[in-house]
Amino acid sequence: MSTATHVSLLVLLLAASLHIRCLADPYGNPSPPSPPPGSAVSGKTFPGTFPCGMGTKCGGANGKAFACPQQCPDVKPSNPNQKGCSVDCTSQKCEAVCKGLGANCNGRGAGCQDPRFIGGDGIMFYFHGKKNEHFSLVSDYGLQVNARFIGRRPTGRSRDNTWIQGLGLMFGSNSFTLEANKVAQWDDQVDQLRFTYNGMPLSIPPVHLSAWTAPDKLLAVERTANCNRVTVVLPGLVEMLVNVVPVTKEDDRIHKYQIPSDDCFAHLEVQFKFSHLSEGVEGVLGQTYRPGFKNPVKRGVPMPVMGGEDKFKTSSLASADCKRCIFATDASAANPLELDPSMTVDCTSKMSNGRGIACRR
């Protein structure tokens, strides 16, 4: 074997080792400290600004920048555990607030746990689906979002316990998927996300704030932690905050899932922030954003369940073939909804921890 071949193999092995463990040093040295944020100089903090573009409610005709709070001076903090500065440019409030970088499972547009959703109408509900099946979460004229469910049926129970393992987006003639890997033992320091764009594998280095943008600029993906947390943005359509988490031993003990030793059922927590939907939007979650939608789930019960598995089932993460799907590559004829996605909702109480209640805006 030639010297050049030896060198090439060593480079490949080194690259693979860096991908396996987030920020791992190939020689076992400790990781260097994170660089200081751009707003910090000589120990002093200077708040940055958050821009709202022209034509948005907060940006107006010429655009406007809003000063960030002292508590979160950076839009993209270098420390993934800190909150970032954010302004919802489509809202009425037009104020900068501190916001966590991951999905907020108690916020509007969230889908977490054994899937527990917070609808656009502020009502919490569960959608069980079935393991190893795909369902449309949102189907609109210019956007399709599907979810793949994994799960298991404990002995003596009549239904599957399910979790969201993957998400698929369709927009125009493009598709994007992100999925959690199957893993036996969970390790926070090992990345378990995988991506595809238009059917081809996509690699994004497991480093906080590393990013990828589609060649046509229609999609951007950015890591908001070294491992297992990303933000996906389709400008003008939707922002998705995604975390990967396992079913913990405590969850298993409480809910009696009977999780096996060879699979911790790593799954996704997701929160959607829509900037454009049509009046006819469909999907398990999407329908709850329609004006006048009458949510059929029962209130005041421990687990309000949304039905419709037969209406929203699709054949894959990148298909729009459910009975209620309306996705089309040309969305020019759709009537847009007036959205205020800044609203977060309180889905907890002293007694229920968010189970079986209507969330308060």
In short:
This protein has helices at residues 3-20, 249-255, 309-312; strands spanning 40-41, 44-45, 49-52, 64-67, 84-86, 97-99, 110-112, 116-118, 124-126, 134-139, 144-152, 161-171, 174-180, 193-197, 200-202, 211-213, 220-223, 229-234, 238-245, 267-274, 313-314.
Description:
The protein is mainly beta and 361 residues long. It has helices at residues 3-20, 249-255, 309-312; strands spanning 40-41, 44-45, 49-52, 64-67, 84-86, 97-99, 110-112, 116-118, 124-126, 134-139, 144-152, 161-171, 174-180, 193-197, 200-202, 211-213, 220-223, 229-234, 238-245, 267-274, 313-314. The protein has an 8-stranded antiparallel beta sheet with strand order 9-8-7-20-19-18-17-16, with no helix packed on it. The longest helix is centred in the N-terminal third of the chain and has 18 residues, at 3-20. This is Root cap. Pfam families: Root_cap (PF06830). Keywords: Signal.
Topology:
Blueprint lengths: L2 H18 L19 E2 L2 E2 L3 E4 L11 E4 L16 E3 L10 E3 L10 E3 L3 E3 L5 E3 L7 E6 L4 E9 L8 E11 L2 E7 L12 E5 L2 E3 L8 E3 L6 E4 L5 E6 L3 E8 L3 H7 L11 E8 L34 H4 E2 L47
Antiparallel strand pairs: 1-2, 3-4, 5-6, 7-8, 7-20, 8-9, 10-11, 10-21, 11-12, 12-13, 13-14, 14-15, 16-17, 17-18, 18-19, 19-20
